[in-house]
Amino acid sequence: MKAYIRGLAYALPEQVEENEKNRLTKKTGILRRHIAAEGELASDLAVQAAEKLFAKGLDRSKVDFLLFCTESPDYILPPTACLLQNRLGLSKHIGAFDYNLGCSGFVYGLGIAKGFIESGQAKNVLLITAETYSKHIHPQDHSTAPLFGDGASAVWIEGLESETSGIRALHYGTDGSGAENLIVPVGGMRNPYGVDKKETTDQYNNIRDNYHLQMVGSAISEFSLEVVPETLQNVLAEAGLAKEDVDYYVFHQANNFMLKYLQQKCDLLDVPYWNDVAEYGNTVSSSIPLALEDMLKANADKILQNVVIMGFGVGLSWAGGVIDLTKEKYL
Amino acid sequence: MEQKFIEELTETIDTEETLAMDTVLDDLEDWDSLSFVSFISMANTSYNKKVSAEQVREAVTVADLYALVKG
Fold it and tell me: How many domains are there within chain A?
């Protein structure tokens, strides 16, 4: 059995926030973002995305493993994946767990799904990514808030009789020394709720504190420019593909200018390269599957056998690989 | 070379002001944290130079930025 993506769906909150028409927006290319309402959780978006996938004809009773990627769980414990098993009406004879990753999370999820399927432990894996970063960001942090949008994706990965795998040449990377460059310091065991609030205001009146997301933008872009080109080389070498053999490059949709610098740095100016953040912003672990579904719709006549995906961000953590989307049947 | 750098820098920090080698960065309204990140990315992609945030912070003029990427 080899793992293949069979279907994709995504869900976005109804509420839309327009970004100011300013310098930042011009650079990032993010015009507006979907923002979860108060009380609307990542798990709610997860349910919507999964229901959309089931509505396309994928049979929920066939799911035998559920993977849930989020940094916005309902509770510290139990795992949100267990709650989702119940809410989605999935069989009790399935495995389900959460894993905590951000922008690299989708690629890791495909790797986990591949492992379960190709080792014979599962046949149909439901991978859900869902995030509400808006709840992690200080409402007066106007340098960070315009970058991130909320959303969820649901992806069906199935074991098919095949010589080759639909998820291959995966390469992973981790550098915990950069952890503080993208962090919500309070809320875990290190700094539990109730510790003193430490607030800073920058020269542009952006407020940040230790209860909210703290991002060092320059460090994150530097890190991305460092690891993405190298990982791409490793992925292409293992897959035995030249740059121009790839049908599409779909990287984590961080923002327009980061995607452009990466495209230049990776020497991908003359190949199909997805860059579309205008309507969603950075949806963290959902950005790649969201882009994949949009890209598939826009390229319905194309054979997308070799699509290179690459995620990078919080951790710091990154991963890339090649996926075959020709078995995607439920769009 | 210097002229090409100035053109690229103008585009990178998205300013309408005319830059010269002796332009003082702090005099530019557009020299903000966003320009900071953009310059580091530009140095990396166009000049293959790893420039630290610290180095950029220490730069006073356009010429100081140029010194970080040339050679």
Answer: 2
Bridge partners, A17 (sequence order) = A33
Q: How far is CA B39 from CA A1, A212, B26, in A?
A: 48, 27, 15
Has residue A266 been placed in a domain?
Answer: yes
Give the minimum alpha-carbon distance from A138 to chain B in angstroms, rounded to a whole number.
Answer: 18
CATH number at residue A181: 3.40.47.10
Number of residues in chain A: 331
Question: What SS3 state is found at A245?
Answer: helix
Q: What are the C-alpha distances in Å from A89 to residues A60, A74, A116?
A: 8, 18, 21
Residues A50 and A182 in one domain: no
Confidence of residue A331 (pLDDT cuts 50, 70, 90): low
Share of chain A above pLDDT 90, in %: 95
- Stretch 5-64 of chain B: residues touching chain A, C-beta under 8 Å: 14, 30, 32-34, 36-38, 40-42, 44-46, 50, 53, 56
Q: What is the ipTM of this complex?
A: 0.83
| CATH number of the CATH domain containing B50 | 1.10.1200.10
Q: Are residues A236 and A125 in the same domain?
A: no
How distant is the Cα of A281 from the closest Cα of chain B, in angstroms?
A: 17
Q: Cβ A221–B41 below 8 Å, yes or no?
A: yes
Provide the pLDDT confidence category of residue B1 given band limits of 50, 70 and 90: confident
- Identify whether A243 is part of a domain: yes
Is A23 or A164 the better-scoring residue by pLDDT? A164
Domain that holds residue A93: 2-164
- Cβ–Cβ under 8 Å, residues A204 and A127: no
CB contacts, 8 Å: A221 with chain B: 37, 40-41
